[in-house]
Design goal:
mainly beta
Length: about 200
């Protein structure tokens, strides 16, 4: 683009596109999801440099209006799409760049249910099947974890207890962002062997 200088008989030409940069704080997690508020700092370079008229970075968040920005602070949960591009004093506009990320600060819910109630004494007299249900409304794709009597953690939605004994079941859920529900536990007693 061409523009007038201070001298009406002198023009300058600038055909160099500015270059914008975005710095995410904290850096983007491998999951693509933040579990707390985050910020983005914007900067741009342009040649020839002009300290009086530096390039400006414009941003568009989730399809909203384009606005100039040097920093965005985001806390709203959900998936986000950010476009940004720099414009210099001559009107040169670089191609828009894109960032996609999510914010999920809410732990999933986890619940454990048996296929039936125990008898009046609190015992199961036959094999019993449990269902571990985990739900998450933001990042989704939650996973349930459980363990029996301090054994190794396992994943799965259902499991059965058929052997006689007392069991302590611990369980929790984890969503795609890495949020975990509070650890919960329950006691179960199974005696499927009739007396002799």
């Amino acid at each position: 683009h061409a523009a007038l200088t201070g001298d009406p008989d002198v023009f300058w030409y600038d055909g160099t596109l500015p270059v914008s940069m975005a710095t995410l704080t904290p850096p983007l997690p491998a999951t693509g999801w933040y579990t707390a508020s985050m910020s983005i700092q914007f900067s741009a370079t342009d040649l020839p440099e002009d300290a009086d008229f530096p390039p400006v970075v414009y941003t568009q968040l989730n399809g909203g209006p384009w606005t100039p920005a040097t920093q965005l602070n985001l806390a709203t949960e959900g998936s986000h799409r950010l476009l940004y591009q720099a414009r210099d004093k001559a009107g040169n506009l670089e191609a828009a760049k894109e960032l996609r990320f999510g914010i999920d600060k809410t732990a999933p819910s986890a619940s454990l249910g048996a296929d039936r109630l125990p008898n009046a004494s609190g015992w199961y007299t036959a094999a019993v099947t449990f269902t571990l249900t985990v739900a998450d409304a933001v990042s989704g794709n939650p996973t349930g974890y459980y363990r029996l009597n301090d054994g190794p953690w396992q994943t799965g939605k259902t499991f059965a207890l058929a052997s006689d004994g007392a069991y302590r079941i611990e369980y929790y859920g984890q969503d795609a962002a890495g949020n975990r529900s509070a650890l919960a536990s329950t006691e179960v007693h199974v005696d499927a062997t009739p007396p002799v």
